[in-house]
Amino acid sequence: MDMALASKASPPPWNATAAEQPIPKRDKAAANDSTYLNPQAHDSVLGIILGGGAGTRLYPLTKKRAKPAVPLGANYRLIDIPVSNCLNSNISKIYVLTQFNSASLNRHLSRAYGSNIGGYKNEGFVEVLAAQQSPDNPNWFQGTADAVRQYLWLFEEHNVMEFLILAGDHLYRMDYEKFIQAHRETNADITVAALPMDEKRATAFGLMKIDEEGRIIEFAEKPKGEQLKAMMVDTTILGLDDVRAKEMPYIASMGIYVFSKDVMLQLLREQFPEANDFGSEVIPGATSIGKRVQAYLYDGYWEDIGTIAAFYNANLGITKKPIPDFSFYDRFAPIYTQPRHLPPSKVLDADVTDSVIGEGCVIKNCKINHSVVGLRSCISEGAIIEDSLLMGADYYEKLIKNSLPKKVAFLLVLGKIHASGEQSLTRMLELETMLRYSMLTMFKKLQWRQTGTSSKVELSQ
């Protein structure tokens, strides 16, 4: 049976794994509200996920990896969110554009979504497109629009109606079929996903103003004062009820777009051939020349994981009671990831409350409260972890510890770490990196003294 025709509750036919638990009652109505496109999304929509820039605001998390490859929710990577949203929306033709530190991201995508996407016909794919120099274009990606422009020759070969442009570093769950259906019903050239905002948050986003039909007529980047008040809109036009509309009289762009195929080709090649960015150049430019640019309201949880604080809060948000900010336990719209074949986590005489524990962890006689513990984490006796995020490890370090002299190994196991709070997160990351490099350097020196030869020790990404 073709994947696109299968129930969204069916397990994925490829080599990704998903968190599948009983769906919360609040999600059942939405999950059963199916949308059927004609033609269907798997035949008519091409998903394009942007890998993002250098991620300087997320440093040191992005020292060795791209932003979308940063770990999330103990078992996942950020890139799993848009890819899973696509697959759950019956969009099975997906490209991921990458440029900075893309090795870890490419490896994860190939292992998680490497084959058999799109049912028995095997028509689907998740394919990485890296920035490259060519005789026609010697430059790297200069922005979101330029990245898409450089691969238009490939995208236009697909017999589709729309291009769905997504960011690889956002946390949210969205049914793109409804998004695309709204685009078709309004005969839009471009549709922009819009998030309702209150006045406090609105100053940090690019805002849009709409007319009575939901058509975007004006943009303002992080307005303040009178300029902010001028951007107020009647959000009941997009579907908010009267109470919510009064609380949230602004709409912000989420950086998620649907382009009609011919419009995209025309804008990037003919009308704005020098434009580098969708949000600040192409979309406002399209509005100015009379293209029909519509707003589509998304009134759910959404977070841009662009800073250390946002990354920390988004991860800790999944431990909230009684309802987390974002749930990985929706069986109608699961989040897929790489199958790692790790053993179940083992908890021995430990006090663990309000926390999420990843796969393959060993937790002994310690206290963990309101924290997220990444996969393969080993936490020993006496440790106290509160309000913290442990990102996990790429491999178990038992071999390295056993190779060290007893005195050094004793220091590694005995140390009690009390990690607490958002303010210490960056320092904790720095200390973890310093400790890892220092211990591996010490190990190499000691091994050289014992054997007379140096050995290569690969650092975890």
UniProtKB/TrEMBL annotation:
<keyword id="KW-0548">Nucleotidyltransferase</keyword>
<dbReference type="InterPro" id="IPR011831">
    <property type="entry name" value="ADP-Glc_PPase"/>
</dbReference>
<comment type="similarity">
    <text>Belongs to the bacterial/plant glucose-1-phosphate adenylyltransferase family.</text>
</comment>
<keyword id="KW-0808">Transferase</keyword>
<dbReference type="GO" id="GO:0005978">
    <property type="term" value="P:glycogen biosynthetic process"/>
</dbReference>
<dbReference type="InterPro" id="IPR029044">
    <property type="entry name" value="Nucleotide-diphossugar_trans"/>
</dbReference>
<dbReference type="InterPro" id="IPR005836">
    <property type="entry name" value="ADP_Glu_pyroP_CS"/>
</dbReference>
<keyword id="KW-0547">Nucleotide-binding</keyword>
<comment type="subunit">
    <text>Heterotetramer.</text>
</comment>
<dbReference type="GO" id="GO:0005524">
    <property type="term" value="F:ATP binding"/>
</dbReference>
<dbReference type="GO" id="GO:0019252">
    <property type="term" value="P:starch biosynthetic process"/>
</dbReference>
<keyword id="KW-0150">Chloroplast</keyword>
<protein>
    <recommendedName>
        <fullName>Glucose-1-phosphate adenylyltransferase</fullName>
        <ecNumber>2.7.7.27</ecNumber>
    </recommendedName>
</protein>
<dbReference type="Pfam" id="PF25247">
    <property type="entry name" value="LbH_GLGC"/>
</dbReference>
<dbReference type="Pfam" id="PF00483">
    <property type="entry name" value="NTP_transferase"/>
</dbReference>
<dbReference type="GO" id="GO:0008878">
    <property type="term" value="F:glucose-1-phosphate adenylyltransferase activity"/>
</dbReference>
<feature type="domain" description="Nucleotidyl transferase">
    <location>
        <begin position="47"/>
        <end position="320"/>
    </location>
</feature>
<keyword id="KW-0934">Plastid</keyword>
<keyword id="KW-0750">Starch biosynthesis</keyword>
<dbReference type="InterPro" id="IPR005835">
    <property type="entry name" value="NTP_transferase_dom"/>
</dbReference>
<feature type="region of interest" description="Disordered">
    <location>
        <begin position="1"/>
        <end position="28"/>
    </location>
</feature>
<keyword id="KW-0067">ATP-binding</keyword>
<dbReference type="GO" id="GO:0009507">
    <property type="term" value="C:chloroplast"/>
</dbReference>
<comment type="function">
    <text>This protein plays a role in synthesis of starch. It catalyzes the synthesis of the activated glycosyl donor, ADP-glucose from Glc-1-P and ATP.</text>
</comment>
<comment type="pathway">
    <text>Glycan biosynthesis; starch biosynthesis.</text>
</comment>
<keyword id="KW-0021">Allosteric enzyme</keyword>
<dbReference type="InterPro" id="IPR011004">
    <property type="entry name" value="Trimer_LpxA-like_sf"/>
</dbReference>
